[in-house]
Amino acid sequence: MGIIGGALFTLLTLMVGAALTFFLERTLTPAVGAAQSLKLSKDLQLAHADRWMYPAGPVSALFGVTVAAAVLPFGPSLIGADLGIGAFYFIVVVDFVVLGVALGGWGAGTRDAVEGFYRITAQLVSYVVPLGLAYVGALMMAASLSTTQIVQAQRDVWFIVLQPLGFILYLVTGLMQAYRAPFYEPFSEHLGGGMLSVIGDWKALALRIAMAGLLFVVSAMGAVLYLGGWLGPWLPPPVWMLLKTFALMALMLWLGRRFQPLSTAQMLSLAWRILIPTGLLNVLIVGGLILAGVGPQ
Amino acid sequence: MLLNLYSAVALAALLIFGLALLAAAVWRPYVKKLNLPAAWKQYRFGFPTFALIFLAFDMEMIFMYPWAVVFRSIGLEAFLDMLVFIAILLAGLAYAWKMGGLEWE
User: CB–CB of B34 and A47 under 8 A?
Assistant: First the structure.
């Protein structure tokens, strides 16, 4: 696709995805946590804000989702940059959102924002390992880290059929990674919205796009790993990819609403006592399946 | 080829930085002063043991990605190798759990 085409396609993916996510989320969920409305029309002046760290937060978060959108495939060659280490790269760059909220929260210098900084670090500690384990199952079957190869490996059967446990793990950890209900403690109402309530004007816009884009890239990666990405009959590939992404997103948002919001302590406990042993079990099951000759050859 | 791919990523990042700068230059809404107390106080940092175990497990994840990619071509041997690796880590997790490490302090 070339350098310029790839870059423009990445931006197009992010903007269209974030806009659709924004409207879907507004119709499906109450405006709490990462989905709460931000103060776009006024600039907030904080007495103790750091001059550079405070605006660096939203920019870092926006950077993270943009470069993550580069490896989302919408067709066999319709992808921003088909990196050989796509899935691993994706996990790494999405964490720039955590860095952004941490930087912005610390830089804002208010009590709630700094508390949000600690909470989001705790959230990172709880989701990274089970999320990685949810990826590893799909990677073992695809025998590649490239996102297009992962989709090609699902030509005969989607990985959701072969490893339902991994898919459930991805649903839970994906919600944690996207800070949607019930895992929105860093932006919860008893922190007064955390960092999101002390940010205004263009910084709020950047953070708004980053938060909507985050849910979009997380759902799109779920569609790539477990739902066969762009594969499907009759309709053109990009339509299938978008359909699967937003179906998965709707499922995640709907599931998330059915549970009480978890505190950071409960979330850490859930991740380390249940999700990580489940993830390791899933890796063993998938390994056994591959040795038994199941899956793409 | 590889350089081209990463150049596309870098160009996308540059474009988004440019858009953010543009928004910062153009968007000048009215300024509202917030008088909130300074952040210097004690916080409850309740997850030190989680953070320590996390380091060990995060390193394990780094080893797992290349292992997952070559798993099919190596087969049973790779499976048994990882079984030992996971067993050692699970023993560590069980130990931390039993010692009360998986608690919010």
Answer: yes
